[in-house]
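User: tokens in, sequence out, please.
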């Protein structure tokens, strides 16, 4: 009898523990507000008031110890409207992602500034407008910031260089204007992979960027002028440089390239001089120097002859394999 009673007690306690909701009531209320704000879309159909957000809901993750919401990822579906202020009421959020939702409009939500634990912010392939806000520089834990493929305008805030842990900054494919901030040559901590392509940036590349050792820098398809040679250097660990379709004008002859450079595209500029012999010693996987004002013989060796003529054509007087022989 005693054994039966104990087994019944254990069974009851186990049942109670399994039925106990893990989801924090405040977080659940906020998430249901977000769902309501978007008009109860099918994409958030799993968000039901009578189920546990930590066990049964898609698009969210809870901390295994505290059961507070730490991740909100809403991706690729039918969702329209602005990002609601309620996202700022999830105080333990570390990852916030809205992406590939082209009917999500409006500015970058100011309430995001309240998310002091945020380390991953991805708002890309949306239809956001307005400026890149200064308040993003307050999110000191950010390691990844992606605002690409939107309609953001105005200048790039120099304060983004104050983010001490940033590993990647994607501002590409917007309508940003003005020049690259001088502060981007003085990142306060780690040096991020920098993606600024497909905007309307003007002016010169700040000389201060020569102090940085970017692993990846993409400034292509802007209206940037002048010198870019400071981005290179023998002692740098830079692997990928994309500068195509600007109005850059400098001599390639004396540029010292990083020994580990893998991908280089400087096509569609006004770059002059010759291709340095040092380029035969670089493990290039891709190269494009076409549509410039280069002259002289293409150095023989390394990977340089493995690329076809389109890598080199439309220059002033480049010659040698894979182009026609020098006279």
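Assistant: Sequence out:
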């Amino acid at each position: 009898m005693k054994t039966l009673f104990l087994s019944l007690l254990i069974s009851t306690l186990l049942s109670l523990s399994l039925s106990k909701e893990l989801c924090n009531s405040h977080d659940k209320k906020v998430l249901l507000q977000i769902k309501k704000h978007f008009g109860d879309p099918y994409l958030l159909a799993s968000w039901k008031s009578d189920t546990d957000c930590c066990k049964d809901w898609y698009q969210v993750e809870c901390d295994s110890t505290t059961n507070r919401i730490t991740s909100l990822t809403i991706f690729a579906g039918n969702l329209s409207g602005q990002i609601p202020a309620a996202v700022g009421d999830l105080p333990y959020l570390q990852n916030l992602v809205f992406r590939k939702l082209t009917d999500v409009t409006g500015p970058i939500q100011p309430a995001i500034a309240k998310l002091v634990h945020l380390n991953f912010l991805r708002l890309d392939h949306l239809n956001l407008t307005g400026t890149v806000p200064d308040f993003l520089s307050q999110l000191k834990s950010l390691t990844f910031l992606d605002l690409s493929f939107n309609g953001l305008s105005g200048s790039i805030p120099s304060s983004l260089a104050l983010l001490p842990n940033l590993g990647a900054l994607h501002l590409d494919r917007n309508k940003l204007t003005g020049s690259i901030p001088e502060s981007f040559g003085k990142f306060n901590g780690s040096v991020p992979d920098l993606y600024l392509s497909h905007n309307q940036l003007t002016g010169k590349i700040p000389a201060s960027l020569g102090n940085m050792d970017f692993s990846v820098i993409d400034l292509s398809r802007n209206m940037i002028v002048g010198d870019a040679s400071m981005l290179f250097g023998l002692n740098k660990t830079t692997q990928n440089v994309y500068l195509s379709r600007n109005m850059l004008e400098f001599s390639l002859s004396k540029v010292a390239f990083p020994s580990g450079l893998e991908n280089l595209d400087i096509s569609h500029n006004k770059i002059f001089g010759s291709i340095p012999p040092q380029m035969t010693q670089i493990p290039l996987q891709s190269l494009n120097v076409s549509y410039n004002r280069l002259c002289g013989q293409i150095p023989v060796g390394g990977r340089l002859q493995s690329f076809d003529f389109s890598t080199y054509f439309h220059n002033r007087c480049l010659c040698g394999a894979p182009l026609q022989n020098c006279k």
